[in-house]
Amino acid sequence: GLGTSTKDDAIKYFKAMSEHRIPFSGVKEGDREMVDMAFSKKKIEDRKEWLRKFQPGTYMDHKTKSIKVEDFVNKELILFSVADNVRSIPSVVDGFKPGQRKIIYACFKRNLKSEVKVNQLSGYVSEHTAYHHGEVSLSGTIINLAQDFVGSNNINLLMPNGQFGSRFQGGKDNASPRYIFTLLSPLARKLFRIEDDNLLKYLNEDGQDIEPEYYIPIIPMTLINGAEGIGTGWSTFVPNYNPIDLVENIKRMINGKEIEKMHPWYKGFKGVIEQVDVDKYKINGIIKKINETSLEISELPIKCWTQNYKEYLESLIENNTILSFKEYHKDENIKFVINLTREQLSLIEKEGLEKKFKMSVSLSCGNLVCFDSFGRLKKYLNVEEIIKEFYNLRLIFYQKRKEYLSNQLLKELSRLENKARFILELINETLVIKNKLKINVEKELQSKDYEKDDKEGNQ
């Protein structure tokens, strides 16, 4: 971009503007429909089909003298749209978007067992993973991975040492990245096993090895911490699920049993999540009547943050719906005590406490969109389909891990046998290396069928 250009570069560019500007060729029949397909809200399904047909390696030839609208849409705009989806929608395998995966890769590479400032970690990630966006965005992603308040992560992969945000503002009340510290959670390497690292397909950018195409955790992290994102033509919302339920279902599959139906679950949430349709749920907070002039709210629905709800209660005071309220929150525990007149309470009870105080929100499980293991966007019918696809892939990688570890043991055995044989031959003087050039020793070892050490590159 222009931000990386010097003053002299800018002068050079703009002096030769006619060389750098490529005009569009004349508008022809079908161009209007092509642009509508790319941008119109009414053409979402057409846009999805357009993106499905994308072929890797597509590019626009900028040496051409003019650009057809059709070529611009199909060869240039589509690259932005695909990149937008890649940044916004996670992989079904590890549950990560690229920015999150880069952070975890950098933490594993650094073996981050001692705390470091978030802004320092973002610099390290940027340096070692070819991250091309702002470090402010990267710091925000690090903070999100470490958050552990109700409604955020069921399992945070980074530790939140400092003020990483709370239920009060949905995590937006975090301290500045230069004041807070983080490190890998003890569970991170339990879920993303180091034994699998050598089986992954690592990406390379401009000669620099960076993060893998995807990690392969032992359980589907996509379902544990959920996901949310809006791309081009596609969006996704995956609720959080209970890790214990996931483990039990995987055990059932191992034993040849059917998967049991799973329902959304959020760590620390005290309310009730009830199913109201095939893929729809109702999340209820907790409100109860203390006496004839008081109500107590001890839980808010998921994603209903304390500050927003406080503002709603203040609006009820202005409308003369309630008299006042007091707050007695502790850490993750919510407690509002609302004071009313008997008449106010009577009117609210007729309307319904739950409705008036917005004690329920709906949650849909009908937009489970992720990239599959082949890098293709896929809409999953239900959670069970995600579990089955993950299970089959994880099983393949367990076999790969077994084969890799077996080969490593065989190599180690061969190395030890070579060492033992070498020592015995020196003792028995059937092999003499004293006062010999290294190259001659190597030739003699080769003639005696010593195997070359793959690890060290010598005999």
From TrEMBL:
<keyword id="KW-0238">DNA-binding</keyword>
<feature type="domain" description="Topo IIA-type catalytic">
    <location>
        <begin position="89"/>
        <end position="459"/>
    </location>
</feature>
<dbReference type="InterPro" id="IPR013760">
    <property type="entry name" value="Topo_IIA-like_dom_sf"/>
</dbReference>
<dbReference type="InterPro" id="IPR013757">
    <property type="entry name" value="Topo_IIA_A_a_sf"/>
</dbReference>
<dbReference type="InterPro" id="IPR050634">
    <property type="entry name" value="DNA_Topoisomerase_II"/>
</dbReference>
<feature type="active site" description="O-(5'-phospho-DNA)-tyrosine intermediate">
    <location>
        <position position="179"/>
    </location>
</feature>
<comment type="similarity">
    <text>Belongs to the type II topoisomerase family.</text>
</comment>
<protein>
    <recommendedName>
        <fullName>DNA topoisomerase (ATP-hydrolyzing)</fullName>
        <ecNumber>5.6.2.2</ecNumber>
    </recommendedName>
</protein>
<dbReference type="GO" id="GO:0003677">
    <property type="term" value="F:DNA binding"/>
</dbReference>
<dbReference type="Pfam" id="PF00521">
    <property type="entry name" value="DNA_topoisoIV"/>
</dbReference>
<keyword id="KW-0413">Isomerase</keyword>
<dbReference type="GO" id="GO:0005524">
    <property type="term" value="F:ATP binding"/>
</dbReference>
<keyword id="KW-0067">ATP-binding</keyword>
<dbReference type="InterPro" id="IPR013759">
    <property type="entry name" value="Topo_IIA_B_C"/>
</dbReference>
<dbReference type="InterPro" id="IPR002205">
    <property type="entry name" value="Topo_IIA_dom_A"/>
</dbReference>
<dbReference type="InterPro" id="IPR013758">
    <property type="entry name" value="Topo_IIA_A/C_ab"/>
</dbReference>
<dbReference type="GO" id="GO:0005634">
    <property type="term" value="C:nucleus"/>
</dbReference>
<dbReference type="InterPro" id="IPR001154">
    <property type="entry name" value="TopoII_euk"/>
</dbReference>
<dbReference type="InterPro" id="IPR031660">
    <property type="entry name" value="TOPRIM_C"/>
</dbReference>
<dbReference type="Pfam" id="PF16898">
    <property type="entry name" value="TOPRIM_C"/>
</dbReference>
<keyword id="KW-0479">Metal-binding</keyword>
<dbReference type="GO" id="GO:0000712">
    <property type="term" value="P:resolution of meiotic recombination intermediates"/>
</dbReference>
<dbReference type="GO" id="GO:0006265">
    <property type="term" value="P:DNA topological change"/>
</dbReference>
<dbReference type="GO" id="GO:0000819">
    <property type="term" value="P:sister chromatid segregation"/>
</dbReference>
<keyword id="KW-0799">Topoisomerase</keyword>
<dbReference type="GO" id="GO:0046872">
    <property type="term" value="F:metal ion binding"/>
</dbReference>
<keyword id="KW-0547">Nucleotide-binding</keyword>
<dbReference type="GO" id="GO:0003918">
    <property type="term" value="F:DNA topoisomerase type II (double strand cut, ATP-hydrolyzing) activity"/>
</dbReference>
